[in-house]
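stage 2 :: seqdesign
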């Protein structure tokens, strides 16, 4: 749930026309089978037009079926393809996948994820997401949210590195952040005003044909269209891509250690996405700033380390990912609690995905694994 937006030329009333000679093609872009949030998009051309189709099967992801704490060095992966086919999945289950994109290539193709909402955290780089809703610029520190079914093209201006979470489970702003009017409440880490929406520009008339890659999970369906894809004359509603930048966040701090749910950015039924951001540490006179040991009995905890000094973890660098699994306990490595006493603040930026369903690593994840990490809590023998 975001907020009501109206841009461009739309009929005075839905399901009607203004100009008998130029009837706009109205598309209901909606969730929940006419019952969820939606936008109405008014196209100049037929949005259903398809000249030809072809199928391209994806390489099957193979899981490494072994639960252990892991540290991955994603900077070892390097650039790959573009924003669509360069998605390097590192953990997945039947619903959700996470991983990274490192690309400097803009594809001429358009893309539509048929199954999943998409959230990208921008680690570095600049560019934009072009869709019928307009141009959504991105910059470092942005979370880019793209609803399932959006047709878009990613314009990569400078080499860009993203950490992504993609899920067929609907991703949304946490329900407990919203009041009954759909406004984000006081006391939450970000506010409705902090949400940036696309700049609407109307039709982009281009000469076709156009390729739209529709992602169905195991395969891509390529649609060839003759009409321009970015042909919206206007839209209104509640469902559209947006960004929120971490600079806008006001992290919640406390006298004693605040647990990760206070840092939630997005939620779904089976996971949450959170952000640990620069903030003051707990202000009790004998507080322990780093997190206590925890046993995530029914969740897996993935953290992408973006920048700053990651005090509770040794050997971690920018673009590292750790996965702390259910069934095993984790916490500060030996000596870290003692070192942390007296620290007043942190400059860390880290993004967390806490999944209530198992997330299994891919073979690609295993290939960049820090072999020693599992044993980083080993007792020191003198
Ligand atoms: Fe943890």
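stage 2 :: out
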């Amino acid at each position: 749930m975001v907020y009501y937006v109206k841009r461009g030329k739309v009929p005075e009333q839905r399901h009607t026309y203004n100009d008998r000679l130029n009837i706009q093609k109205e598309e209901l872009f909606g969730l929940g089978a006419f019952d969820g949030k939606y936008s109405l998009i008014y196209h100049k051309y037929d949005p259903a037009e398809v000249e030809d189709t072809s199928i391209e099967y994806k390489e099957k992801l193979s899981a490494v079926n072994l639960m252990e704490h892991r540290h991955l060095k994603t900077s070892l992966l390097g650039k790959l393809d573009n924003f669509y086919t360069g998605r390097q999945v590192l953990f997945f289950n039947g619903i959700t996948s996470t991983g990274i994109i490192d690309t400097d290539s803009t594809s001429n193709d358009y893309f539509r994820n048929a199954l999943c909402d998409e959230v990208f955290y921008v680690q570095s780089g600049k560019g934009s997401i072009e869709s019928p809703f307009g141009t959504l610029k991105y910059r470092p520190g942005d979370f880019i949210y793209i609803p399932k079914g959006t047709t878009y093209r990613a314009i990569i201006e400078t080499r860009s590195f993203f950490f992504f979470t993609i899920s067929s489970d609907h991703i949304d702003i946490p329900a407990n952040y919203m009041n009954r009017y759909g406004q984000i409440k006081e006391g939450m880490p970000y506010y409705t005003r902090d949400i940036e929406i696309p700049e609407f520009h109307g039709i982009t008339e281009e000469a076709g044909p156009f390729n739209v890659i529709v992602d169905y999970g195991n395969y891509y369906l390529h649609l060839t269209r003759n009409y321009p894809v970015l042909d919206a004359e206007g839209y209104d509603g509640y469902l559209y891509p947006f960004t929120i930048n971490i600079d806008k966040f006001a992290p919640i701090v406390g006298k004693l250690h605040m647990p990760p749910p206070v840092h939630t950015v997005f939620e779904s039924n089976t996971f949450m996405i959170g952000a640990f951001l620069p903030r003051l540490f707990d202000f009790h006179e004998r507080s322990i700033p780093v997190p206590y040991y925890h046993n995530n009995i029914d969740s897996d905890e993935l953290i992408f380390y973006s920048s700053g000094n990651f005090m509770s973890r040794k050997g971690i660098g920018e673009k590292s990912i750790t996965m702390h699994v259910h069934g095993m306990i984790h916490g500060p490595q030996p000596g870290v609690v003692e070192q942390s006493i007296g620290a007043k603040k942190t400059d860390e930026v880290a993004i967390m995905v806490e999944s209530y369903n198992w997330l299994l690593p891919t073979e690609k994840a295993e290939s960049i694994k820090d072999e020693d990490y599992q044993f980083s809590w080993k007792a020191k023998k003198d």
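stage 3 :: structure notes
- The mean pLDDT is 95.
- Residues 294, 301, 324, 330 surround fe (ii) ion (CB under 6 Å).
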